[in-house]
Write a structure and sequence with these properties.
Elements lengths: L2 E3 L10 E3 L8 H6 L1 H11 L2 E6 L2 E6 L2 H10 L4 E2 L1 H12 L8 H11 L5 H4 L3 H12 L7 E3 H18 L7 H19 L12 H25 L8 H7 L10 H14 L2 H16 L1 H15 L13 H13 L6 E5 L3 E3 L2 E3 L4 E4 L1 H4 L19 H6 L18 H18 E5 L22 E6 L1
Parallel strand pairs: 2-3, 4-10
Antiparallel strand pairs: 1-2, 3-4, 5-7, 6-12, 7-10, 8-9, 11-12
The structure holds protoporphyrin IX containing FE (HEM).
The site of protoporphyrin IX containing FE (HEM) has 23 residues, from α12, α13 and α18.
Length: 454
Amino acid sequence: MATQVKTDTSEQKTIHYLRGTPILGNLPEYSRDRLTLLKRIAAAGDVYGMHFGPFPAVMFNKPEHIHSILVEHAYDFDKGDAIHNIFRPVVGDGIFTSEGDFHRRQRKLMAPSFQPRHIASYATIMGDYSEQIQQTWQDGAIVDIDQQMTNLTMSIIGKALFDADVFAETDELGKAMSVLFAHVAQRLSMLLPPPYSWPLPGNIRTRKAMQILRNSVQRFIDERRNSTTERNDFLSILLQARDEDGNPMSDDQLMAECLTLFGAGHETTATALTWTWYLLCQHPEIYQKVLQEVDTVLQGRTPTYDDLTKLPYCLQVFKETLRLYPPAYATSRRALRDVQIDGYHVSKNQVALIAPYTLHRRPEYFPDPEKFDPERFTPAREKQLPRNAFVPFGAGPRICIGLYFSMMEGHLLLATLAQRAKFSLVPGQTITPDPLHHLTLRPAGGIRVAVTRR
Ligand code: HEM
């Protein structure tokens, strides 16, 4: 492979860079076929660089690198300008975009309500909404499973966060969310994105979508403030939170956290479930094992939290999907100071890339990596994986706060729906992940499936 070598001799190990075009570097390929580019970088070496125009970024692709960057050196990095400048003007400064002490405070405040003992209480909501949506599917109907999973997970997060029933509004809110995420994804691919304040068609579209979302969230907040009923949802915790001086969160802060959780809390899990159905349709023998497990264990009942340990194969299937199609397929960090990672020198302001999409395809941990094989995640085999070889939720102090929530959700929704309906792919579709137009690894144009009721 053709490479350029950076001539910085002070480093213990030299970072090599993929060759790119003179001015834009690897940006054209990044904007055209991002996943192939990530695979190309990973194939070139465990630590390898690329250029966004003149800006270098180095991808670290070994489990120990992930540990070093996201855990050991977590506070030597931040999320960088790309995340700050693109997300903050749209959603505000919430837990996802904030840094330092402010982030630590917000995280501490929110974390207890995302612990397993608390989120277990959401299992009933998940089961109920799954039953509700599957009843809308007629035998022989053709549905876009991506859209259905988005509506379902959005209804669930609406209920869990705001104790609100958004089921009927999910089409409108889902569209607004898609516009917003597409805008963010597009800007993340630009070298110099034009300011959000400029009256460009994309900005205007996004502002309209944001208004729809903000209005809904504001309505939930207002309803809650006017209600005297005590509740156990997430908004209650945000509203009751007080800083050291006894002050509540400002309205802007509250809005930022609500938008962050509403957005982050449904799109990712929906994407993972969409690919789960796709992979099951492609692998009839694995699909059959799932059906057998749910039929034997549940015998027609809606699964509860306590059933989950009796449905291990469903969990293995969900994890294997997260391996092959990690919704958050790549993330980045900017060095706040010079750092050594595995003997490589990362200078202050340099960007480190981490791509679960390529890391999860390392053949030494996942032999025949493109094969969909849920047996990789039997408890015994999963234990043999090195720490941070499987990181769909990230790692360290910025690890996904919704990890337990979404694992339970994926597991439970898969079991509930598999019991009621069987899907088959409508022939003639070209199904590919489309990271260019979506923030997560969603399929381009959805996935149409035919429903057979069970
Ligand atoms: C399959 C589902 C999900 C996946 C794959 C996923 C993935 C991730 C990843 C990789 C990160 C870390 C990003 C980074 O370090 O740069 C993250 C952060 C985050 N996720 Fe998730 N997520 C999922 C579901 C959820 C859910 C259900 C919620 C909320 C209910 C949520 C809320 C958040 C928040 C608030 C952060 C920022 C945490 C912080 O910076 O302290 N996520 N997620």
